[in-house]
Every structure is written in C-alpha cells, then in structure tokens.
Amino acid sequence: MRRRQFITLLGGAAAAWPLAARAQQQALPVVALLRTLAEDDSAREVAAFRKGLSETGYVEGQTVAVEYHWLAQYDRVPTLLSDLVRRRVNVIATDSDVSSTAAKAATATIPIVFGAGQDPVKLGLVASLARPGGNATGVYFFSQQLAAKRLGFLHDLVPKAVRVAVLVNPTNPSAAATLREVQEAARMMGLQIEILNAATVDKIDAAFDTLARERPDALFVAPDAFFVSRSVQFVTLAARDKIPASYSQRTTAAAGGLMSYGQNSADTWRQIGVYTGSILKGAKPADLPVVQSARFALVINLQTAKLLGLTVSPSLLATADEVIE
Question: What distances in angstroms separate CA 37 from CA 129, 192, 209, 251, 286, one per listed residue?
C-alpha cells in the first residue's frame, strides 16, 4: 500500500471514530422525565429515580439517556408532550395527575410511567389497577384520600381550632376531589371550612391578605405541584401572619412550614424508575400492575411550632416520621 493511500485511510478512520461515538450515544434509549417542581426541589426524587433505574440494570449516560423537564406551571405541559411524541422518546415518566393525563391524551403508543394522586382508573389512565391494559402504568399515592388524615393531624397540632381555611388551585383537576374529602372530614370533626382559590403567585399573596383580615385558626393547603414550587412564599407569608399551616409535601415543611403529610415522594420515584427500566427491557405497561403506595410521611417542624406558640403532644411527636428541630 502506498504511503498516501495509508494516510488517507488512517485519516478517514480517525474521522469516523467521533461519528461512531455520537451514533452510539444517540442509540441510547431516551426517557423523558416530567417533574412538576423546580430542579432545586427535586434532588431526592431524581436520585431515587436513578436508583430505580439502576435496580433494573440501567445507568444514566451509559445505557439510558434521561431528559429532565421541570414544569411548575401546567400550561407548558401540552406543548412539551407534543414535542416528545414527535421525537418518539422511549418512555415518558411523570409525577402528577395533570401531566399524566395529558401524556395519555397525547399518545397511545409511547409507554407512560406515572405517579397519580387520584384513582388512575377514574382518571382514564388504566383499565384497572391489576391489569392496566394500555400504554400506561405507575404508582397510585392516594393524595385525595390522605386529605382527611392530614386535616386530623393539623387539628391535633392546633386543638382549639374551629375555623380552617382551605387553599386550592382551581386549575388543578384534583381540586374538587380534595375539597370533598376535606369538607367531609371537617364536618365529622366539627370544623368550619372557608375555601380560598389561588393559581398564580399574585393570587397566593391575595389569599394571605384575606387570611390576615379574616383570621382563621389554621390553614390547609391542598396538594398541588405549583403550591409546592412556591414553598418559600407560603412559609414566609404564614410566618408573617402567624397562621399554623399544613402542607402535602416534605419540601415545604423542610423550608419552614409547620407540618406536612403525604406520599413518600422518593419512594414513588424509585418505583417509577424500576418500572421505566422494566419497560426499556421489554415489559409492557399493560402487564405491569399499578403500585398502590403504602409509604406516607408525617413531618413536623418543631422550630416553627415553637415560633407559633404551639405545644406538640408527645403522642404526635411519636407518630411523626420526621421531626425538624
């Protein structure tokens, strides 16, 4: 072989190496993860998702590519899903009723692994919990059914409470179901409920202005991804107005909220990761039963309780899964 031919062949091979590497990277299956919270609030859940993937043999960046989409506002969901469907990602993983039902409406073929607070059958995500029967499966974490128990914990913390304000996001499809649960529980506890609505930052401020005027004994914040994304705002306003408030996610209690009770979100995302990996390996969503979450967490911020002049009973402290001091 002539020297010039050898150099040409060698140069061609060298040029092909990065192309081959890019092709290999592009060949990785792509998972789109839709998280209805900001990135800064999602470290525990993302780590749990990666753990779930690893349990099925997948490592991000090596055997699977993960696209992260942070969606604190619901209005961005349809546009994003249209793009994901157009690009035919391998799996869509999501954590809210809104994004899960939007994903189901957007595609009947791309596998969806969801976290749902409402009954997935009633939401139209699956035919049944045991036999999903379509392109979606995931975790059901009973957020509406937990509302009554959380109201009870709030009443335990503020036993003299009579009037409780309930703040909901009217754009959340789960709001009506949550209100029904809270109203029924309040009736049984002898509590008076006052309903406030907020779907924007300004509306949250306005709701607290109303609370400052009307002075209810406590505040129950309905489960909602947008509300969780505004944890600092809620904590600041509740401290300003000295109102005991209950939240659905640990994120808000950790930021200084009085208490939270809800799903163990890290456990939910680990299971979403396990199912995502199983589907990448060839399992069909139709054959993977919906997991019914059995792990919930009561978190009490003892420092906030002291600032509000509340005494937390020993029995409630013993019940808590976590006490922040």
Answer: 26, 31, 25, 10, 28
Spell out the domains of the chain, with CATH numbers in brackets. 8-142+264-296 (3.40.50.2300), 146-262+297-324 (3.40.50.2300)
Q: Are strands 296-301 and 259-263 parallel, antiparallel or unpaired?
A: antiparallel
pLDDT reading at 323 higher than 90: yes
> Over the range 11-22, which residues count as b (16 or more CB within 10 Å of their CB) and which as e?
eeeeeeeeeeee
Rounded-to-integer distance, Cα 134 and Cα 13, Å: 46
* Beta-carbon contacts of residue 172 (< 8 Å; ≥ 6 apart): 74, 97, 98, 222, 224, 226
Confidence check: pLDDT of 188 > 80: yes
Q: What are phi and psi of 93, to 5 degrees?
A: -110, 130
What pLDDT score was predicted for residue 46?
Answer: 94
The one-character DSSP state at 143 is: T
Q: Is residue 93's pLDDT more than 50?
A: yes
DSSP state of 289: P
Q: Which two tokens stand for residue 60?
A: 């991000």
Predicted local distance difference test score (pLDDT) of residue 16: 43
Measured CA to CA, the distance from residue 225 to residue 211 in angstroms comes to 22
